[in-house]
Amino acid sequence: VHPNVSQGCQGGCATCSDYNGCLSCKPRLFFVLERIGMKQIGVCLSSCPSGYYGTRYPDINKCAKCKADCDTCFTRNFCTKCKSGFYLYSGKCLERCPDGLEANNHTMECTSIVHCETSEWSPWSPCMKKGKTCGFKRGNEVRVREIVQHPSARGNTCPATTESRKCIVQRKRCQKEGKGKKNREEKRKKSNKDESKETRQESKGRAARRQNREQRENNNKTQPKKRKAPNKEQDLAPVDTAH
């Protein structure tokens, strides 16, 4: 072993030197050179940093640089994320997306163009005018549909979701507002009135009966009591003359 090479290293190094840092790494760790000013120092990492990709060999695992426009990559020719100003498409970083695709500024990728999609039209509504379905001859009826897929930036815009047309109906009178309620109120008042009338009649009947009873009692108090008629059989009894 070279005098400048040590095997008692820190930070995952298998061998190292005071001047160049790590020279080799422990198993499963990746060796990468980091530049510090004009100097490069070897370090051992569990995963490669941004802008690098890992390659494994029997003797050493190394981190290699991605292409200049890649932020992260799987191999040198297959990027997984692009640097600012580039759009990812099929592992490549492009300044402009190919025809038929559009740039997604949120994901910084080239994606398929999405056009608007709508549901089927609903049935036509009843013929109405000013919110009413009666009291007129000519009105309007409408139908609606829903948006089921919103378009992307370059997709076809959505069409109208409401449609209106003229309509003609047989003129009919509108029921006056509150008429049904008024009829119910009149019936309730009539019912209460009938009940009150029956109650008054019953009260009058009870009062009349009570008055008649009191009158009979007063008459009985004011009339003189009749004397009891003598017993004729006792008056006709024979008189004892033996004495």
UniProtKB/TrEMBL annotation:
A GO molecular function held by the record: heparin binding
The keyword Cell membrane belongs to this UniProt entry's keyword annotation: no
Compositional bias segments (type: Basic and acidic residues): 175-219
Entry GO CC: extracellular region
Organism: Thryothorus ludovicianus
Homology family: Belongs to the R-spondin family.
InterPro entries per record: Furin_repeat, Growth_fac_rcpt_cys_sf, R-spondin, Rspo_Fu-CRD_dom, TSP1_rpt, TSP1_rpt_sf, TSP1_spondin_dom
Keyword entries, A-Z: Disulfide bond, Glycoprotein, Heparin-binding, Repeat, Secreted, Sensory transduction, Signal, Wnt signaling pathway
Protein name from the UniProt record: R-spondin-3
Gene Ontology BP term (one): positive regulation of non-canonical Wnt signaling pathway
Stretch list, region Disordered: 174-243
Annotated Spondin-like TSP1 domain residues: 116-170
Domain R-spondin Fu-CRD: 11-110
Localization (cell): Secreted
Pfam families named among the record's database cross-references: Furin-like_2, TSP1_spondin
Protein function: Activator of the canonical Wnt signaling pathway by acting as a ligand for LGR4-6 receptors, which acts as a key regulator of angiogenesis. Upon binding to LGR4-6 (LGR4, LGR5 or LGR6), LGR4-6 associate with phosphorylated LRP6 and frizzled receptors that are activated by extracellular Wnt receptors, triggering the canonical Wnt signaling pathway to increase expression of target genes. Also regulates the canonical Wnt/beta-catenin-dependent pathway and non-canonical Wnt signaling by acting as an inhibitor of ZNRF3, an important regulator of the Wnt signaling pathway.
The protein's assembly and partners: Interacts with the extracellular domain of FZD8 and LRP6. It however does not form a ternary complex with FZD8 and LRP6. Interacts with WNT1. Binds heparin. Interacts with LGR4, LGR5 and LGR6.
Domain of life per record: Eukaryota
